[in-house]
Amino acid sequence: MARYTPEDLAAANGRTLADVIAPHLNVLFCGINPGLLSALTGHHFARPGNRFWPALHRSGFTPRQLAPHEQDHLITLGLGITNVVPRATAGAAELRAEEYRTGGEALRAKVAEYRPRWLAIVGIGAYRVAFDAPKAVMGRQELTLGETGVWVLPNPSGLNAHYNVDTLAAAYAELRVVVEGEGAAAS
C-alpha cells in the first residue's frame, strides 16, 4: 500500500468521492461520509482498518474479498456505494446534523433516480439523523423510498468496537438472505 503523508491526507479534507452506482442495483450501500484516505485514493472504504470489504465477502455478497481499488466490480454483482454526506473528513464527528439532513434529502433523490431494490445505510447514527428516525434500530426499516426498501447495518469502521468482522458479516448476511429470497435482479 502506498504511504501518504499527513499533508497528503489533510489536502483531501472536504473532497468528494464519486459514487459506484447504476440503475436498478440490488443493494446500494451508503456510508456515512468518505474518510480522508478514501478521498485521496478515490476508493470507498479505503482505510486498512475498515471492515467493509471483508464483511461484504464473508456475508456472501461477493465471491471473494475485493480490495477498495476493485470497487467498480460491485456493479457487475448488482451492488453500489454512496455516502450520506459527500464531503471527506478525518472522522464523522466533524459532521454537523444539518449535513446529515441535507444528505438524507440528496439520498432520497438519488434513490428515486437510480431505483435500487435496497438502500443499506452503514451506520445507525447517520440514519437516525438523516432520516429523522431517532428510535431506529439495526435491520429492516419500516420506511421505504418508493419501491426501495431501507436497511440499517453496523458501521464497518475499525472504530466501531461493538462489532468484529464476523459479527459484521452476520449482520450483512441478514440483508443478503432477504435480497436472494426476493430473487436478486439480473446483474
From TrEMBL:
Taxonomy, superkingdom: Bacteria
GO process terms (BP): base-excision repair, AP site formation
Record keywords: DNA damage, DNA repair, Hydrolase
Keyword Iron-sulfur part of the UniProt annotation: no
GO MF terms held by the record: pyrimidine-specific mismatch base pair DNA N-glycosylase activity; uracil DNA N-glycosylase activity
Pfam families given in the database record: UDG
Keyword Oxidoreductase: no
Protein name in UniProt: Uracil-DNA glycosylase superfamily
